[in-house]
Amino acid sequence: MTNTLSVIDQGTILDFTFDDALRYHGPLAPGGVAHAYKVIERALGELAVDGPVERRELVITTSHGGPGVRDTFELVTRAVTEGRYTVDKALARPERGNTLAQYVFQIDYRDQSVTLIIREGIVVDEFIELVGKADRTTEEDARLVVLKLEMTDRVMASPADQIYDVVPSTVSQ
Fold this sequence. Notes:
This protein has 173 residues and is an alpha/beta fold.
């Protein structure tokens, strides 16, 4: 389904699969797990040119506050526990519209930085509308579950560079 994410921790190479991330997070937000997994995969492709990166030197800033995203970054990088993970709404790109605005991730590693934004067509408007709806009906909750699984499958079926683009950063760290 996807490549394994490899990082180094205290001289030991650690490999993480998508299934590892799903088990760590649980069933709540499989789409968020998939997005973070592909973000890490894409970022590592840019940052790990000489082999795996040191996991505890990755710094993540995102405008996406979802629990699946957070937990996947924690599993692979330990950034949440160690204070290297920040949800910053200023990173959002509102000019991209409500559906795409929050899918922005900046990954810093040593003297390098990469900013990733989601491509159009990956997240559907209906998903964003239902996620943001306070008083969903039982039918809407069931539909949201379907949309989460469809998005998860869509994200994981494609290479990371088909899901996320590398763009110039608009926020300096």
